[in-house]
Structures are given as structure tokens and as C-alpha cells.
Amino acid sequence: MQKFPMTGPGLVRLETELRQLRSEERPAVIRAIAEARSHGDLSENAEYHAARERQSFIEGRIQELEEIISAAEVIDPATLSGENVKFGAHVQLVDEETEKEATYQIVGVHEADIKQGLLSVSSPLAKSLIGKKKGDTVSVPAPGGDRSYEIITVRFG
What family does the entry list (predicted)? Predict the structure, then answer.
């Protein structure tokens, strides 16, 4: 079975989503299906079909989350150290063209959220950062051409 590296907070977020789907979303969609059924002819009942579609999505997501959670390998970045970028590292970068600074934490694929600064370990940027250290410059392929970033700091925890 494939293991998924993940931080503790990332695992908690997925477990919370799973609990919410099981305890709130699933019962709500079952009620919606029952309500729509009571309206009669199911062949032309848009509410019924929408509720069934929603149920299919919820059941699929529950199954997906159960698989991810069972295969999660929690890594605590606070226990890591060193100068080189690796999973769990908080990396502060500066775009060499625009001088914009950004800080990202390299996290598992299933917990990534770029708006929160959580960068997937499988993203092109993270792949180019892994193994590098403070002061190094990395080039990352981007739709508008390669972008260059300088690593300002690398920290763990």
C-alpha cells in the first residue's frame, strides 16, 4: 500500500472533513432523497436526481478520505532539522524578477493549499526546492517561461 506523507494538522483537517461528511452531509442528503421521493414521479424529478448526484459525490469523497487517512504517514516537521529543504520545511523565497517574497511549507499532496502557503511536495516548485539550501537559486518552469527564486530562509517546526 502506498503511504502518503502528511503533517499532523493536515491529517486532522482530513479527519474533520470525513467526520462532517459522515455525520452531517450523508444524513442530510438521505433526507433530501426521501423528501424528493415523496413528490412522486422520479423520472422527471430534478430534486431527486440532484440529491442522488450529491449522494454519489459524498460517498465517493468518504471512500477517498478513508483510503488517504489509512495510508497517511504523519511526519512532524518539528522533529526535522538541517539546512536543506525537505518535506515539512518552511521556505521563504524571493522572486528574482519581481522581488516579491513568499513563504511556503512543503506538505503532502492531499493537504496542499497554496492560498494558505501549503505547497504540495509534488509541485514543480517544491520539486525544484528539495535538497537546496539558503542562498541557492532555483529555476521553475512556468506557463509564461521559467521563473527564478532565491531561497532566503529554511526552517522547520
Answer: Belongs to the GreA/GreB family.
Task: For residue 118, list its beta bridge partners.
Answer: 105, 113
| pTM score | 0.81
State how far the Cα of 125 lies from the Cα of 139, in Å rounded to an integer.
8
Give the angle 8-13-14 at the CA atoms, nearest 5°.
100
Q: What is the pLDDT of residues 23-68, one digit of tens each?
A: 999 999 999 999 888 887 777 788 899 999 999 999 999 999 999 9
Is 3.40.50.300 the CATH classification of the domain at 77-155? Answer: no
% helix / strand / coil in the chain, to the nearest 5?
45, 25, 30
